[in-house]
Amino acid sequence: MIIAAHAIKEKIRRKELYIVAMIGVLVLILFSADGSTISIAGKPITDYDNLAPIFLIMVNAICGALAIFLSLKTIPNEYERKTSHLVWIRGISQTRYHSELAIANGISCMLAEGIMFIGMILFTLMKHRQDQLWKLIPAYFIMALGIWIVSLLTSLLSIIFPGMVAGLIAAIVYLAGIFHSVLELFGNMVSGLVGKLLDIVLWIVPNLHEIQAQAGNIFTGSSISIHVIVKGLFIIWLLGLGFMIFKKKEA
Predict the structure, then answer these.
(1) Are 183 and 206 in contact (CB under 8 A)?
(2) Is 123 helix (H, G, I), strand (E, B) or coil?
(3) Has residue 128 been placed in a domain?
(4) Within a domain: residue 251?
(5) What pLDDT does 36 receive?
(6) How confident is the model at residue 139 (pLDDT cuts 50, 70, 90)?
(7) Amino acid 34: pLDDT
(8) Domain membership flag for residue 250
(9) Which structural domain, as residue segments, surrounds residue 105?
(10) Angle at the Cα of 159 from the Cα atoms of 153 and 165, rounded to 5 degrees
(11) Domain tally for the chain?
(12) Which of 39, 91, 189, 196: CA 20 to 30 A from 19?
């Protein structure tokens, strides 16, 4: 894991990670300040139990976008800087090289998520709900499933396609994933070729919304679907297999 460790250190030194994450923390703090409210259908939502799931959605959205940003150029940059050739002469396989860089991307994204969760901790303390702090731990790891999926997918796409194309596909898949339930509702309303194509897309695209919803269920008291968690882990495993299948021609 030496390659992954070096890649993580490099990302930690990048200012972008902290800037974006701290902006997210600032947004959470501003919304949680006294006098700040969120309204749904004209009705202000001020209590912690209703606000926490909403803030989790915000954290998930920011971290997902950051996962694409952090993971898109990691592997291509190694080839542009010719660092990869230093790896080949040591007898390290391309599969291991790409996999460790992808792992570094995922861990960096979890670090960004951890910074974002500082805002959630402050929000919880400002609402005087110290009894709810423990719920942030399982929520963090459940949301990390979706973030790992986005990060690994982006890393894998960066091996197969040019940067702009990989980023566009990753962004489309990410948006389709977080709006999966909305697209399912729309799919039930249409028929014919459009409906069939949408069904295929929804079958391929990971349902990131349902993963995030499980984290929200921790705060609402609803039951957590173990099936969703297992399915998320299975998708991560499938993406991991992708690094064994797809190779970069420039190597």
Answers:
(1) no
(2) helix
(3) yes
(4) no
(5) 52
(6) very high
(7) 54
(8) no
(9) 2-245
(10) 75
(11) 1
(12) 39
In this structure, which long-range contacts are made by residues 29-32, counting pairs with CB atoms below 8 Å and at least 24 apart in sequence?
A: 29/119, 29/122, 29/123, 29/126, 31/55, 31/123, 32/122, 32/123, 32/126, 32/127
Handedness of CA 173, 175, 177, 179 (dihedral sign): negative
Q: Are 145 and 49 in contact (CB under 8 A)?
A: no
First to last CA, the chain: 20
The reply to whether 87 falls in a domain is: yes
The SS3 assignment for 38 reads strand
Residue 23, sorted as left (phi over 0), alpha (psi -120 to 50) or beta, turns out to be alpha
User: What is the spatial distance between Cα 144 and Cα 212, in angstroms, rounded to a whole number?
Assistant: 9
Q: What is the pTM of this model?
A: 0.87
Check if the beta carbon of residue 176 is closer than 8 Å to that of residue 186.
no
Asked if residue 180 has pLDDT above 60, the reply is yes
172 C-beta neighbours (distance < 10 Å), count: 12
Residue 55 near residue 101, CB atoms below 8 Å? no
In tens, the pLDDT along 214-248 reads 998 988 888 899 999 999 999 999 999 999 888 87
